[in-house]
Amino acid sequence: MALSDPSDRAVLALLGEEPARAEELYRQLRERLLRFFEWNRCASPEDMAHETICRALRRFSEGQVLHAENPHSYFFGVAKNLLREQWKCAAREPLQLPDDFEGKGSPPEPGVLYPVEQRILLGQSLRRLPPEESDLIVRYFSEGSDQLCATTGLSPNAIRIRVHRIRKKLEQYCCGTAPIAEKDLK
């Protein structure tokens, strides 16, 4: 920097009168900014630290007055604003899903469905069951057999037999071996 410009002298005075001291303060500031951006999980902490220092020094060279006793606090204020800007930009961008995300590409093995496809197929199969059977099997797996026995008044063995029969129907629906009714096509 040319020392003839008053704004350049102000920037050097901000970091320290002696060049060696200003260099040491700059190194400390940069390390602290790097840690700050790393802790906040920024994609590129070095770029963010560099941009913070550039913005702050640009503002000082434009005549910004430092009101804080410690110049580092001003730099960290700029860093927080820069971090907020990055978060806002990231929130506006659509999420980039990996190539092997559920439902894209081929399944891992022939005949194996992705979890999302399994849930869709199970939901469709449950809708094909009569409402009392659908309710019974969902309650069996969500509440447990003891709770179901208490609320229905059936014995544990009767519950197990009914659930077994309903599961067999679901397997037929899922495997495509059961006939499809008109109502299921809607």
How many beta-strand runs? 0
N- and C-termini, Cα separation = 75 Å
* Mean pLDDT reading: 77
- Characterize the largest beta sheet: strand count, sense, and whether it forms a barrel: none
Secondary-structure content class: mainly alpha
How would you sum up the global shape?
A: rod-shaped
Number of helices: 8
Low-pLDDT runs of 5+ residues are 1-8, 182-186
**What percentage of residues falls in helices of 4 or more residues?**
55-70%
Order of helices and strands: HHHHHHHH
- Please indicate the percent range of residues in DSSP E strands (runs of 2 or more): under 5%
**Count of the domains:** 2
Rg result: 33 Å
Structure, described:
This protein has 186 residues and is mainly alpha-helical. It has 2 domains: 6-92; 115-185, Arc Repressor Mutant, subunit A. It has helices spanning 6-15, 19-39, 45-61, 71-92, 115-128, 131-143, 145-152, 156-175. Helix 6 (131-143) packs across helix 8. The longest helix is centred in the middle third of the chain and has 22 residues, at 71-92. The N and C termini lie far apart (75 Å).
